Amino acid sequence: MSRIQTYDTTLRDGTQGEGVNLSLQDKLMIANKLDELGFDYIEGGYPLSNPKDKEFFERAAEIEWRHAKIAAFGMTRRCGVTADEDVGMIALRDSQAPVITIVGKTWDLHVHDVLRIDEQENLDMIRDSVSYLRSFDREIVYDAEHFFDGWSANPEFALRTIKAAEEAGAAIVVLCDTNGGSLPDQIVEAVNAAQEVLSVPVGIHCHNDCDVAVANSLAAVSSGAIQVQGTINSIGERCGNADLISVIANLALKRGADVITEDGVRHLTELSRYVYEIANQNFRSGQAFVGSSAFAHKGGMHVHAVNRVARSYEHVEPKSVGNVRRVLISELSGRSNIVAKTTKYKLDHDNELMTRILNRVQDMEAAGYQFEAAEASFELLVKKVSGNYVKQFERIHYRVNVETDDNGDTTTEATIKLIVKGKVEHVVAEGDGPVNALDSALRLALNQAYPGLKEMHLVDYKVRVINSAEGTAARVRVVIESADHDDVWNTVGVSENIIEASWLALVDSVEYKLHKDEGAMEMADEPEPVLETESVASN
């Protein structure tokens, strides 16, 4: 398959998604990352819509882009106004963008009932806008808005609109499934119809309202489209746009197409998370190719097979998109999971030890623990079961006191008594709530003996009710995410008492940090073995 152009509209269409707001610096940083990976076009926004987008094009004009062409987006001229008088046309002309994308109406419903003009006026608006901007030696991309709805309702008129754009000088006509309501077979039929009347190539722009935007984009490419428009991570209005991460991975790895750079494909996971971070959004663990769960294996049978033949349960190599394989530990695990997870530690992987670890995991998960999202607690469990655990401190008792005065002001105080390196530490600390007070008191008791704890900080705290039928007496699971200067880890605690559950997770977090600093979480140098043990659990 020849070169398939990637046209990214994260900075324009993506910002129309709920909760997405990018600063000027954010947009420039994302644009630079896309350019670095070899994207062909980067749509920066609509220069007339706001000062930020206008300044983006001013800044972009000063940058020497390695791969990408910067595109400015806008609509056809307004009804009753000539192109050279239309403020939108003038803003696009003055943007200095080498590529200008014009969106025009294709669906006669919009022409008659939204714009309330006749069909000839709509065709004139398309021709005038494209020809005017083309006269300034700009590359014109014509986006045929609602093409698939328009073609379904009135195919003759829909085809006349895209022909008008071609005749006026558009370099490519992009067919837009603006409402996201089309299915792949409809895409193929309409793309073929468009290509029969056009001499210029076609592109595809899909929205994800039926959850098939990627499939629709791939179907269009199979039918001859040479450009795919979309956003990173599918961000965008309503249900989002086609996810260019998945589109690129499928085209490059499954179709052998030339898309972005070879090295860029291997950095798709990095790109996905980079955009999530800048847009201040949570990662989607189940996102195809790049999600943290994309190559995560939980069933014992699966892990056993993957360690023998990776492609038995993986459709591509994780590293081909910059991702990694993960083995999850739960009550569904077999010995294969335990061996795979503990190979990096210097343990004798005898069947008896693996079985004892597995039994302990299953017992604790039956009590409400979950180790998939708390691998630090699992690693401490392995050390305890294998006899390699050294207790860094011992609790004598703790107490948390919460008081509220007549003004409604609340004071929380934690008292902890520990044995630390043979010495009794009895401390009191206040905090913003019981967990923060416990954390402060624990650090106060340990900081002198373990100064490395000053590097550690709590990143996140989550509580989940396990057996909600018990009401306020229900058991709860607390997961704490902690970090230091070079690592992030998660720990878990379970109890009917939320304070005790928090204490257990907090202690595991501190213990993990202390063992890590002492090198007790030392890794073996040898590669992971080919597993020969049979799984004791199915998928």
Give the amount of beta strand, in percent.
15-25%
What is the average per-residue confidence, as pLDDT, rounded to a whole number?
Answer: 87
- What structural class is derived from the secondary structure elements? alpha/beta
Strand order of the largest sheet: 1-2-3-4-5-6-7-8
SS field, number of helical segments: 18
Query: What's the count of strands?
Result: 16
Low-confidence residue ranges? 522-539
Specify Rg, calculated over alpha carbons. Answer: 29 Å
The oligomerization state is: single chain
Characterize the biggest β-sheet. 8 strands, parallel, barrel
Head-to-tail CA distance between termini: 37 Å
Global morphology: elongated
Q: Roughly what percent helix?
A: 25-40%
Compact overview of the structure:
The chain has 18 helices and 16 strands.
Keywords:
38% helix, alpha/beta, elongated, 539 residues, 18 helices, 3-stranded antiparallel sheet, disordered C terminus, 8-stranded parallel beta barrel
Structural summary, described in words:
The protein is α/β, with parallel strands linked by helices. It is 38% helix and 20% strand. The protein has helices at 24-37, 51-60, 87-94, 108-114, 119-134, 147-153, 155-168, 184-197, 213-222, 244-254, 262-265, 268-278, 300-308, 335-342, 351-366, 375-386, 434-446, 498-517; strands at residues 5-8, 41-45, 69-75, 99-105, 139-145, 172-177, 202-206, 227-230, 296-297, 326-327, 393-404, 410-420, 423-431, 457-465, 476-483, 488-495. An 8-stranded parallel β-barrel has the order 1-2-3-4-5-6-7-8, surrounded by 10 helices. A 3-stranded antiparallel sheet has the order 11-12-13, with helices on one face. It has a 3-stranded antiparallel sheet with strand order 14-15-16. α13 (300-308) crosses α14. The protein starts with a strand and ends in a 22-residue tail after the last helix. Residues 522-539 have low confidence and may be disordered.
